[in-house]
């Protein structure tokens, strides 16, 4: 049966090309990342006699840009990048084509990664990389990372006279602070047994959320400099890390190149456990390759994605761009297990919640960040601030 499928596919791909006309597959990669798959695209071109045109574009804008091209009746890419929290939005805009070979291929990927792109029994993404918050530590300030939040706090107490902190984070940012919510079982939108999110069941003001935010408040108010709050906080955190004024920070994979180019002698570790030993549970997200609904080369696109996501190719891509593919065979390799960065990411994903994939997630960020800021900066009672934040989220959902 498998041989019949391969033969049929091969014939279909051959029919796309003739001596006078050859199919061109247009692929959008992330900004400055096209080179990570160019080698494999060249091999694909030779194998199937087609052309692969890879373009560098900021993946944060792929969904917007594809939707814009479709609305103006212009040519779209065959393949673009889709982050898991944009699945619902992309589906509602009609941007995605189902990827049929993922019915067989999905088992190659960790279950949580593939499931985020499954809608009503069909897959709409091929997982490319997984990301979650981790701890970056400056080995010249803190030779080894700690396993618990109290240990980082103890470091702060011991070095307070020197003006050096143990661990800091953008505590008033909901994305960065969700690990405290998720630790005790709070959630943004409740998931059912099929993994679908219920926009009308919000768990950000329940007892579990109150417990997590109480720990966050104590940490933020007593053990983190107030300069991390507000818009200026981002730069202040980076400056403190680069200058050795903090031993460790919480950040994501997107900052890896920045810290490496700054010459910091850094290491990477999972997030610390809270004072009672409970692991923090931040969001995790998955970046996938998606096939555009307007593509005239869908089968070719599917085969291309299967081709470039072979384990050995995905491993080479990881070494080039440091974005970890959630492929089971790859994660089981000794070189990945012994890689501090890959090990930290894969370990953290085991203790992380998937970021909701429904469009209503867009209405959560601002109200919850306002709530966190009012709690940490202004001393607003936690329960009242969270209740108000959730009320605003519900209002926004109702209005839209």
From TrEMBL:
Superkingdom: Bacteria
From the UniProt record, give one GO term of the biological process aspect.
Answer: maltose transport
Where is the protein situated, by its record's location annotation?
A: Periplasm
Keywords linked to the UniProt accession: Periplasm, Signal, Sugar transport, Transport
Record-level GO cellular component terms: ATP-binding cassette (ABC) transporter complex, substrate-binding subunit-containing; periplasmic space
Which InterPro entries does the entry link to? Maltose/Cyclodextrin-bd (IPR006060), SBP (IPR006059)
Where does the secretion signal sit in this chain? 1-22
Name one matching Pfam family.
SBP_bac_8
Task: Kindly list the GO molecular function terms attached to this UniProt entry.
Answer: carbohydrate transmembrane transporter activity; maltose binding
The main location is periplasm
* Protein role: Part of the ABC transporter complex MalEFGK involved in maltose/maltodextrin import. Binds maltose and higher maltodextrins.
Q: Which protein family is it in?
A: Belongs to the bacterial solute-binding protein 1 family.
**Protein name per Swiss-Prot or TrEMBL:** Maltodextrin-binding protein
